């Protein structure tokens, strides 16, 4: 059935946990692309046949092919106007070729939408990773990405880094705005005497501290402190 | 200045001092790991400090010198920056300026329920130490002074070396003992003679001796004092009120206050409970179709008559009756006869045995409903007349219901369940206990309650063994003493509060046997086996008693005389850790001293 593979691709993404990535399904993507190519070949041959049958109406029959070429690069919505065009301007050539052409064309654009949705949604997840992870991807995630996704992540992370260094601010912490500038934490390891923003504090193991959030952040992200909530 | 009589001005001074030194160091808080009261007080004062954005760092400590580990040189005379520290539930019994070597730039604030307070800490000339000691607390103490403590404190010379420890040579000791024997009569005479005394130095010496030789006792729970502060500052919440209830119950469970003072405390807290909207809080909601459902997520505090049964919510009725000190000692549940008696009681009340052995939560609702009436009807036949006491409950959500006494048992067990060989320590357990006290972490509290059950079973096993085995409790003229040797239970009982509970169990059992009441000294091997923990218990405080627990001084001097290594830095002077080989000579010396 036409378009089935494309649907499977989208389904695969939709069924995975939100924010999680499954391995990039190269096989299925290749199969969908092959299907697209075969649609395109069919389409071309059908157009040629129709042109041969009604050379008089070549001007209107040519239009769909041009539009196909465009819609391969742009949005699939572009296929609407020519149909409307045809129904008003000329008498619709309602032979087998015409219906075949329509089916192939619709299947092609649908496959394209599915492919785009798959790649785009994965890219969104990859972008989010750029905020939550350090610059290096953990291996278990990296092996799930395609080459271009890896490249995308690298560039995106680099962009974030350069933005943050320009601002001189770590934007990765506190994605949810804190209620209080202070925080109550428990020290989980012997850190020793440390200069916090303006105070000298002994961060001994098991101590409970009420300090500035900014002072605690680095230790919390290193796993040396835990936040205490009442 | 030393004595701060109002909680509000104490806090204002604490906050101002903390903010003044905030540019170099946070306020350092040192809570005692020895009791639940200190934990409650810490949580309440922590809440108040947080709402004032005062940064603090809190290090739990279990003995006097441990504080130096955290402060380093910042506290001493060489320090060049101001520093503010707050001690919770320890410290006021010793001359802090001397013991902790406090320099001129340091300020030490003390909230402590231990009494007596060292006079040097109270003296107006000692501005490095500020002790919270309210007028009410002085007047309502279990042991009353018949002189003005402040005046006495101000008369004392700060640089004098005449600490009460140094005074305890045998001459003074005998003097005070004779005073004890003759009781009030003698005291009156002494006072008359003291008033006639023209030499102020002698008068001062006499009063001072009277002050210190009264022995140790406890004042108002620190948790309740801190709640008063939160209340005054309009920062009180229901959660803090619950902590105050737990703090008061802690003193009650560990027999640190008289019944009269407990009643007064309960009444005060009940008023707070009533005025904090616990009565009319929404407990049921009517749905559109008219069905009534209990509202979830509403937590409220209730006060009710509670049975003296331990950890009922986490246990079953049968075992709780079998092991709780109150019933166990009266019915002697360790003997076959005792168990029969208890089963007879259950049968007469009409409680099926299977139901009683069911986890309490799942016990039939009829039994739960009729329990109080039945117990009140049948228990007097067995001589148990005050089985119910006024206690506090926290109701949370649909089914969670926990009594303040069970929280105290559970949290105390957590505080005292560290095993040095697995690397856990008192400050780690303090963190566990800190979590267990918050309403959202009930699973930790359950762990503690299960531990408390183990401890109580060990108390029953060891207590009944000591009672039934001839010669295990040795009796002197002034006190009895008992030594625990069994290695499995020793692990559970070698902590001061657990050993104290064991002692009270024995005293209750001895009273039932008709023995004359004498103080009891319990000796128990610590985890290292080379040392023993010794705890002295003087019986439940009574109103109008002349003496508290006066073993502290005798302990110290006896231990010094044995020449063995000892550790007398725990927060109760009636607790001491001693070299195991020296126990016998220690006991001989102690007997001689108290003759």
From TrEMBL, chain A:
Q: Which parts of the sequence are annotated with region: Disordered?
A: 52-99
Keyword set, alphabetical order: DNA replication, Nucleus
- At the top level, the lineage of the source is Eukaryota
Q: Which InterPro entries match?
A: GINS_A, GINS_bundle-like_dom_sf, GINS_Psf1, PSF1_C
Q: Which CDD domains match?
A: GINS_A_psf1 (cd11710), GINS_B_Psf1 (cd21696)
- The residue ranges flagged as biased composition, category Polar residues, are 56-74
What name has this protein been given in UniProt?
Answer: GINS subunit domain-containing protein
The DNA replication complex GINS protein PSF1 C-terminal domain extends over 179-229
Compositionally biased, Basic and acidic residues: which spans? 83-98
Give the protein family.
Belongs to the GINS1/PSF1 family.
Location comes to: Nucleus
Residues of the GINS subunit domain: 86-166
Automatic annotation (TrEMBL), chain B:
Q: Which Pfam families match?
A: CDC45 (PF02724)
Q: Can you say where in the cell this protein is located?
A: Nucleus
Keywords (A to Z) from UniProt = Cell cycle, DNA replication, Initiation factor, Nucleus, Protein biosynthesis
Task: Please tell me whether the keyword Nucleus is annotated for this protein.
Answer: yes
Name the residue ranges with Acidic residues bias. 159-183
Q: Which GO terms describe its molecular function?
A: translation initiation factor activity
Q: Where is this region: Disordered?
A: 158-195
Family annotation (InterPro entries): CDC45
- Top-rank taxon: Eukaryota
Q: Where are the transmembrane segments?
A: none
PANTHER family on file:
CDC45-RELATED PROTEIN, CELL DIVISION CONTROL PROTEIN 45 HOMOLOG
Q: Which family does it belong to?
A: Belongs to the CDC45 family.
Q: What is this protein called?
A: DNA replication initiation factor cdc45
Q: What organism is recorded for this protein?
A: Datura stramonium (Jimsonweed)
Task: List the gene name.
Answer: CDC45
């Amino acid at each position: 059935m036409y378009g089935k593979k494309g649907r499977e691709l989208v389904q695969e993404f939709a069924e995975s946990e939100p924010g999680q990535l499954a391995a990039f399904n190269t096989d299925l993507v290749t199969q969908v692309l092959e299907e697209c190519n075969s649609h395109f070949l069919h389409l071309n041959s059908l157009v040629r046949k129709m042109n041969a049958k009604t050379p008089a109406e070549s001007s209107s029959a040519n239009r769909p092919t041009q539009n196909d070429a465009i819609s391969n690069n742009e949005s699939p919505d572009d296929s609407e106007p020519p149909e409307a065009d045809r129904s008003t301007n000329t008498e619709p050539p309602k032979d087998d070729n015409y219906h075949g052409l329509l089916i192939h064309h619709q299947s092609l654009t649908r496959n394209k939408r599915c492919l785009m949705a798959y790649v785009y949604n994965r890219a969104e997840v990859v972008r989010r990773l750029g905020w939550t992870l350090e610059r290096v991807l953990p291996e278990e995630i990296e092996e799930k990405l395609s080459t271009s996704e890896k490249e995308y992540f690298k560039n995106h992370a680099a962009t974030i880094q350069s933005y943050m260094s320009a601002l001189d601010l770590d934007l990765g912490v506190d994605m949810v705005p804190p209620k209080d500038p202070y925080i109550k934490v428990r020290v989980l390891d012997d850190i020793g005497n440390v200069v916090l923003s303006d105070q000298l504090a002994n961060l001994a193991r098991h101590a409970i501290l009420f300090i500035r959030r900014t002072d605690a952040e680095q230790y919390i992200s290193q796993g040396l402190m835990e936040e205490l909530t009442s | 200045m030393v004595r701060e009589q109002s909680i509000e001005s104490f806090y204002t001074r604490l906050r101002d001092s903390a903010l003044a030194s905030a540019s170099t160091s946070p306020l350092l808080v040192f809570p005692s790991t020895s009791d639940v009261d200190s934990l409650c007080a810490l949580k309440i004062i922590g809440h108040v400090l947080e709402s004032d954005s005062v940064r603090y760092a809190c290090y739990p400590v279990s003995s006097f010198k441990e504080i130096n580990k955290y402060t380093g040189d910042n506290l001493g005379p060489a320090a060049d920056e101001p520093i503010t520290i707050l001690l919770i539930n320890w410290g006021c019994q010793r001359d802090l300026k001397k013991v902790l070597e406090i320099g001129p730039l340091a300020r030490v604030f003390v909230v402590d329920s231990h009494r007596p307070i060292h006079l040097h800490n109270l003296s107006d000339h000692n501005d490095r130490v500020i002790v919270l000691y309210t007028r009410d607390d002085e007047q309502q103490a279990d042991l009353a002074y018949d002189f003005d403590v402040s005046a006495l404190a101000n008369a004392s010379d700060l640089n004098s070396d005449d600490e009460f420890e140094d005074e305890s040579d045998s001459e003074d000791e005998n003097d005070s003992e004779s005073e004890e024997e003759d009781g009030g009569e003698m005291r009156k005479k002494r006072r008359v003679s003291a008033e006639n005394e023209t030499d102020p130095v002698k008068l001062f010496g006499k009063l001072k001796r009277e002050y210190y030789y009264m022995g140790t006792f406890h004042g108002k729970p620190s948790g309740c004092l801190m709640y008063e502060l939160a209340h005054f500052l309009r920062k009180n919440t229901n959660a803090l009120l619950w902590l105050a209830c737990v703090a008061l119950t802690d003193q009650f469970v560990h027999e640190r206050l008289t019944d009269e003072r407990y009643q007064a405390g309960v009444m005060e807290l009940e008023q707070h409970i009533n005025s904090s909207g616990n009565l009319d809080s929404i407990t049921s909601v009517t749905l559109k179709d008219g069905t009534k459902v209990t509202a979830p997520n509403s937590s409220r505090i209730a006060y009710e008559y509670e049975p003296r049964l331990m950890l009922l919510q986490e246990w079953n009725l049968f075992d709780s009756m079998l092991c709780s000190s109150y019933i166990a000692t009266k019915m002697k549940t360790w003997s076959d006869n005792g168990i029969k008696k208890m089963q007879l009681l259950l049968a007469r009340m009409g409680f099926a045995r299977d139901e009683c052995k069911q986890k309490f939560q799942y016990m039939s609702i009829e039994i739960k409903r009729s329990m109080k009436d039945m117990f009140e009807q049948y228990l007097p036949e067995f001589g148990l007349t005050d089985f119910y006491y006024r206690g506090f409950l926290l109701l949370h959500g649909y089914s969670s219901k926990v009594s303040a006494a069970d929280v105290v048992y559970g949290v105390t067990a957590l505080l005292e369940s560290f095993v040095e060989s697995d690397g856990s320590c008192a400050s780690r357990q303090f963190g566990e206990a800190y979590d267990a006290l918050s309403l959202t972490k009930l699973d930790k509290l359950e762990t503690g309650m299960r531990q408390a059950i183990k401890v109580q079973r060990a108390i029953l096993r060891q207590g009944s063994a000591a009672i039934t085995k001839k010669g295990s409790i040795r009796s002197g003229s002034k006190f009895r003493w008992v030594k625990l040797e069994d290695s499995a239970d020793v692990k559970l009982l070698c902590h001061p509060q657990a050993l104290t509970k064991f002692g009270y169990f024995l005293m209750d059992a001895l009273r039932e046997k008709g023995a004359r009441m004498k103080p009891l000294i319990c000796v128990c091997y610590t985890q290292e086996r080379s040392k023993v923990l010794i705890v002295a218990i003087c019986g439940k405080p009574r109103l109008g008693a002349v003496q508290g627990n006066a073993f502290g001084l005798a302990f110290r001097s006896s231990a010094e005389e044995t020449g063995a290594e000892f550790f007398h830095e725990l927060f109760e002077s009636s607790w001491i850790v001693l070299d195991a080989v020296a126990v016998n000579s220690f006991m001989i010396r102690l007997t001689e001293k108290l003759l």
